[in-house]
Amino acid sequence: MFVHEFDRKIKIEGEIALEMVRNIIVPVVTKQFKKALSAMQSAKDLKVKAGLTALEKRVTMLGEGLDSMDKKTAVLEKALGKEDSQAIIKAMNELRPIVDSMEGIVCDNDWPLPKYREMLFIY
Description:
This protein is mainly alpha-helical. The protein has one domain: Four Helix Bundle (Hemerythrin (Met), subunit A) (Up-down Bundle). It is 79% helix and 0% strand. Helix 1 runs antiparallel to helix 2, helix 1 runs parallel beside helix 3 and helix 2 runs antiparallel to helix 3. The model has no long low-confidence stretch (mean pLDDT 92).
């Protein structure tokens, strides 16, 4: 059990991060993945070659992002279960770059949270 205020706050932060990734980020990345996959399949069905390489690359990046987020959220969940602050911090630090990369790929209109570049000019 956590005895220090720091540990309690880290656990809360980890729980929120896990919830946000699972309930906000993964669904929006999945939506983008499906759109790109559908566009790629349509191009293949119509035997259109222009743009196909870019679509395949996008599908791969989104799919790899989904796979990585799945693995890293499992690590975070395990760390939360052990109530190990250092493991929670490490798991969040490993999850963050994946989410950040997905932020750069998902269309602005679909991304449900403020993007970093947007927050830079809020003051």
